[in-house]
Structures are given as C-alpha cells and as structure tokens.
C-alpha cells in the first residue's frame, strides 16, 4: 500500500516541479510588467508587486507606431495562416486520395521542407523582394510565413483525410454529389480538429518570427517582435515597458490557445498516429 502511494506521488511531484520550472519565467514577465521601477532594479527580488502600476503598459501602448505594428502583425499572420490552410487542404486531399506519379517523392519533399531551417531562405527572399520592388511590404512577409507553416499543415491534414473512410465519400458520390461536393460536405467537416491544430501552430510560428522582418521591412512595415526591442533609454533597457509589451504580445496567442485548446491538442495527437 505504501509503495503504491509512493508510486503515485512521485509522478505528481515531478509534474509540479516541471510546471513551476516552465511557468516561472512567464510569471516573472507578468509580475515585472506591474512592478514599480525601484522594485525592478532592486537587488532583493520582489516576487509579488504589492504596489503595482500600469505605467509600463501605458508606455508600451503609447510607443511610436504601436498600432501600425499590431496591424502589420495581424495582417501577415492571419493572411499566412489562411493561405496555407487553403493550399494545404487541397494538397493533402490529393496526397491522401489520389494516385499519381511522384506521390511518394512529393511526400518526402514535404517532410524535408518541414525539417529544413528557414533561415537559409532569408537571402533568397530578400533578393526576390528587392528585385520586384517589394521591400518594406507585407506581401513577401506573408508568403514567407505561409511557406514556413505549409509543410506541417499538409502533413497533418493528410493524416486526417486518410483517416476518413473512402466509403463515406463514395456514398455521397453515389447519391449524386460530385467529387468536389463530396469533399466539401463529407470530408471537410471532419477536418475541424486538424484545421484548428494547424491554425494554432501557424499563428504562433508567424506571430513570433523575427529575423526576416528585421531584414526586409523598415520602420513602418515592421511587426510586433521588432517592437519589443525598441524600449531603450539613455540608461539602458526599460525593463518594465519591455515586460509589459511582452505580456501584451503574448495575449493574442493565449486567447487563441484557450479557444482551440481541446480540439487543437486532440488534432495534433490524432494527426500523429493516423494515416
């Protein structure tokens, strides 16, 4: 009985320790955002900001071009996610349902593209944007983000489509549906978990991207990750404003995760074992 109790206790203890280990930086970021300047630079750590302030959030929101950066980030991120979902859904359907020459090679290319570091494409994207006079534009940024998330989206949705019995699609076609109608009415509604999980992955990936926008876009075309590096004073970094900005930067991802959590986690798990 005692051994059984110990066996049940240790996993819980380890889980709590890991939770505290990973959540503490997030807590420290949020707590610092509410601290007074004296508490931030104090040699004695202040874990709970009893004398909290919202001044740092005001400083962050009133920073130059804040709303421009918010708009740029939302346009580039949401645009990349939507475009990747449309292309990936059609590509995944072709891979899962159709037999064509080079199918296995295409699947292999998708896997290799997923493993490749996207930083190697930075110079090529810059040269293409420069030659087509699209520097400081959200267009190349959006399409680059789309390319970043497209392989994972194709691979995950392929597994979901392959898991749908062909008989359902064939029954719909027997009842008078075309293949396109059968896909829209039968297969597409069953892809909701996969679409949510890939949307969440794509949103986080594009929302956090930093190197490419630093190279391609100037002040008015930059996004929020670059905005986070702008809080500097003559005496160094303004840590209070930086932490407040980081907290606000994380809010959209947190909200999206809360709404999609159950289906997204289930989608990632199902997509990993099916197909």
Straight-line distance between termini: 43 Å
Q: Which series of helices and strands comes N to C?
A: HHHHHHHHHHHHEEH
Q: Could you tell me the number of beta strands?
A: 2
Largest sheet: 2 strands, antiparallel
Describe the structure.
By secondary structure, this protein is mostly helical. It contains 13 helices and two strands, in the order H-H-H-H-H-H-H-H-H-H-H-H-E-E-H. The chain has helices spanning 2-34, 37-40, 55-61, 66-97, 103-115, 122-131, 138-163, 166-174, 179-187, 192-207, 211-216, 224-227, 239-273; strands at 232-233, 236-237. It has a two-stranded antiparallel sheet with strand order 1-2. Strand 1 (232-233) and strand 2 (236-237) form a beta hairpin. The chain is globular, with a radius of gyration of 23 Å. The chain starts with a helix and ends with a helix. The model is unreliable at 267-275 (pLDDT under 50).
